[in-house]
Amino acid sequence: MLSAFTARPIVELRARDKSKIESILAYGDRLLVGLNTGSLRVYRVNEIPEDKGEGNGTATATPDEGTVTNPAPKPVDLLREVEKFSTRSIEQLARIKEANVLISLSNYYVSIYDLQTYTLQEQLVKTKNATTFAVTSNIVKDSASGILEIISRLAVAVKRRLLLWSWHEAELESNVVEITLAESIRTLTWTSATKIICGMNSGYVIVDVLTQEIEDIVGPGAIGGAAGAQGGRFGSVGSTSMGYMGLGGYIPKPLATKLAEGEMLLTKDINSLFITSEGKPESKRQIPWQAAPDAIGYSYPYILALQPPSKGILEVRNPETLSLLQTITLPNASQMHFPPPNVSLAHAGKGFHVVSDRCIWGMGTTDYDTQVDELVEKGLYDEAISLLNMLEDALLRNKEERLRETKILKAQRLFDQRKYRDAIDIFLAEDVQAPPERVIRLYPPVIAGELSTFEEKSSEDEDAHENSEEANGDGAADDKQENTDPAKPAAISKLLKGHKKNASDAGSIRSFMKFDNNDGSDTSSVRPKQPEDSALEGKDLVNAALELNSFLVDARNRMKRWLDAETGKLVPQNTTGNGQNGRQGPSEASFESFLVAPASDAEKDREQKLKDTAKLIDTTLFRSYMLARPQLAGSLFRIPNFCDPDVVNEKLLESGRYNDLVDFFHGKKLHRPALELLKKFGTAEDSDEDSPLHGPQRTIGYLQNLPPEMIDLILEFAEWPLRADPKLGMEIFLADTENAETLPRDRVVKFLDNIDTGLAVRYLEHVINELNDLNPEFHNDLVSAYLKDLKERNDRDSEDWKDLMSRLVTFLRTSKQYYLNKAFQNIPKDDPGFYEAQAVVLSNLGQHKQALVIYVFKIKDFQKAEEYCNYVYLQSDPSTVQSTQASTTDSDDSVPSIYHTLLSLYLTPPPPHEPNWPPALELLSKHGSRLPASSTMNLIPDTLPISELESYFRGRIRSVNSVVNEVRIVAGLRKTEVVSAQASLLLGDGKPGGKGGRNRGVYVEKDRVCGVCHKRLGRSVIAVLPDNEVVHYGCLNRADKRPIGGGMESLRSPPRRS
Which of 591, 615, 924, 1042 is deepest in the core (most CB within 10 A)? Predict the structure, then answer.
């Protein structure tokens, strides 16, 4: 069994002393003992070196014998005995350090004593008939001021009532909070500074002492239940509890204790429930108690359970696996005392005390490193891993490396048990990352090669060994299991262990399952049925190889952090060093994880070591693929690798896997032979069409993976795929990959233009529209390519030609990088199909009138002319738009308007064109408010009837009215704002605790001081600030210069009433 704790008696009552120990309180080097006679004894605990001989974790001290084996030095010294401390038995003791007081429960009353003199300060009268209490001290932040303060609380159970007292900064408040529950309270346990768990006969409730909210704790399987209800697993009429009621009405006591990290444990009878500090059940199984514990507790990092005094057994359990790790015999022990969890660090409070009516034991903790070594030595890997995870780093030597080694040993045991998936998962874990050589050694030579340690075994020796194991029985098998070195390879371990019988109990806790026969939760350490044949072959070998593949792939990825697979050189550490915000770079530990033994300081050739390891990984992975999944071998060659060329070439040539041969060429950077092989099979007419090498697809994919530095080779072998399938071949240059985007674009444009202008247009559109290339040369090339393609085509009525023209116009309108003059010169002047393109270029040149002339007189599309004016108007400078809008009330016509230009072309066109009245009147109707009034009226001839201008005048009037109405609305809103400000000044903001108006009053007490000079106000003349602060009238000028957040903040709240 594990020796986690050792018991040492520190206080033993003499045989002639008829007193009995009822309660204790330990803090610092003081130990207070409450007796059944009402006396209080004060001891000083001395520092005594631990007895290294007590390593079995079992204490059998019997205080009645009165024998002392080691008289010096004494464990404790009696400093004082207060005989008249209480008239009755002292049932419970606690202290509130901040208030320097001692809390005692005696004679059904809770009393407060001075912690130094032990004199009675106050007996809490309201606690008559009290049965138990609980105290807590916490540092909380004040919600109003934000200042941290220490708040201590005392909770007392008086039948159904829960009474609460509070100490704020060591001062006891006069108000007492009283909360009534549905039934009598039996136990109290604080979960946080404001929440407490009350244990009752029917179950548990959690009470918020601030809001006085009561919430039932309900878990799976009807655990808990509503307060007052007598059902449920923790209730008094369950199937288990009914037996107690029939034997005299005994109801098990509800127990609760606080665990680490805000977790709580509730126990009633043999049932248990893990909850959070908020009272929410957790998805954990129950602790397999064999008997109902009399008390429970937590001492970092274990759960402790004390059996009834008749048994006198202290159980130590792992809170994660719930396994029973140790039992300590303590005769007649009835209670445990733990230091408060918030007093010190978790591991600093590991010392606790166990109490009987005649003796007090001080529990010492065995060194944590010794505990871990003991668990590993016994093969209890799950318990060792759980303990290592729970303990803090500072408490162990080299915690990470020990945890890693323990997990590797567990994985090797699982591999020996034919649990390949579970073993590889552990090998692959981020915190394990087992050395590849150590894992490969577990496999036979067909995979591991010369590295394998598998040994063949004759059938006669195997049968003899099997018969010997059967004759020795299960006990011999257990001994053999413990003595086998788990670090040995699978084959050797199996030869030593041989065939074993089935075992349903957990192997990691087999030695103490007599106390815990129903616990079978440690699934990863359960001893399964051993395979009859220890040889790894056939289906087992294939399954093991499949699992090995995932490990080797992960090892290859980790190798990239140290070794560049393409160059075979070490990765510079300064470029992949640790970063605070990013992912951490490779470390020394990650390098050593590739090696079975750490490299010595004298070894400087790390690069060669990593190359050898990489060669081992890749060659083993190739062998594993060829054995289990030959079709996956090609995936290894599509990436840089360190495979042994002799092994690879031999296997691929024998199997005729030419596709994989291409991938191998690519991985070794032999690109020209690979491309020539692809071209040979891709252009062959007699080749199989279903072959992956037939057609341009394979060549296109290969070229996409080549870097831009090999542009000559890419262009040389890209021509035949483009001519065979232009759409698919363009993926070489248009793919969404870094290689395609970083190719020399000028060379690609010239190459594509020589093959087909349409391909060059497609590539330039991709570069400009998707890659956002702002190079003017590419923009000019695209314009020239558009015009060249449009001029050469004869199908101007087709949709393709119109679509191409639309793309040209859109590009001319949106692009700002091409040369405008050069583009305007290249556009045909007298070709009607290019009129709109001319207008767009003229617009970009700022020649809006010439552009409108094309729309009005050449294209004769008045709708497009109006849309052009709208576009120019919206794209113009905001100041110009504002000036144009202001023209509705101002006669200033200095700012030109694009609408005025269009109107002048309608009404006063150049010869030989005639005035066009319909579009002019429509323009005046729609956009009259955007036209200068005086210049617009000058354009209208006197012969035009005024009725034709009705819509124009309506628009002008409506625009002017909108401006006037806007001014009126703003003036009204400002008047409302003034009235609101005046009301706030006279009446205040009307909020509780807010600023008051002039008609307000303040209450000045005799002890109130000025917030500026900090002197009493007395009968002096005062002044009241807008925030209701009161200062001397003479200090008013200095009131605004006082520091923010000064002493006046404490004067706002009324004084505390006693």
Answer: 924
Q: What is the pTM of this model?
A: 0.57
Q: What does the block give as tokens for 772? A: 């956002």
Check whether 505 has a pLDDT greater than 70.
Answer: no
Find all residues with CB under 8 Å of 372, minimum gap 6, and list them. Answer: 384, 387, 388, 396, 402, 406
Residue 822 near residue 850, CB atoms below 8 Å: no
Query: At 847, which amino acid appears?
Result: Q
Residues in the chain: 1058
Structure tokens at 1046: 């000064």
User: What radius of gyration do the chain's Cα atoms show?
Assistant: 45
One-letter amino acid identity for 146?
G
* Residues sharing a CB contact under 8 Å with residue 294, sequence separation 6 or more, in sequence order: 253, 306, 307, 308, 309, 334
Task: Tell me how far the alpha carbon of residue 337 is from its chain's centroid.
Answer: 37
Residues 6+ apart with CB under 8 A from 41: 32, 33, 35, 78, 80, 81, 82
pLDDT, the chain, mean: 77
CB 743 within 8 A of CB 771: no
Contacts of 785 (CB under 8 A, 6+ apart): 753, 757, 760, 761, 764
Residue type present at position 608:
Q
Q: How many CA atoms lie within 13 A of 844 on its CB side?
A: 21
Task: Name which of 32, 37, 34 is nearest 76 in CA terms.
Answer: 32
Residue 535, class by beta-carbon neighbours within 10 Å (0-12 exposed, 13-18 middle, 19+ buried)?
middle
3-class DSSP assignment, residue 197: strand
User: Under 8 Å CB-to-CB from 116, ≥6 apart: which residues?
Assistant: 100
* Segment (H or E) for 56: none
Share of residues in the chain with pLDDT > 70 (%): 75
Mean per-residue pLDDT, 737-764: 88
Percentage helix, strand, coil, to 5, in the chain? 45, 15, 40
Question: Which amino acid is present at 1033?
Answer: Y
Q: Identify which of 459, 419, 462 has the alpha carbon closest to the alpha carbon of residue 442.
A: 419
How many Å separate Cα 683 from the centre of its chain?
54
Beta bridge partners of 302: 299
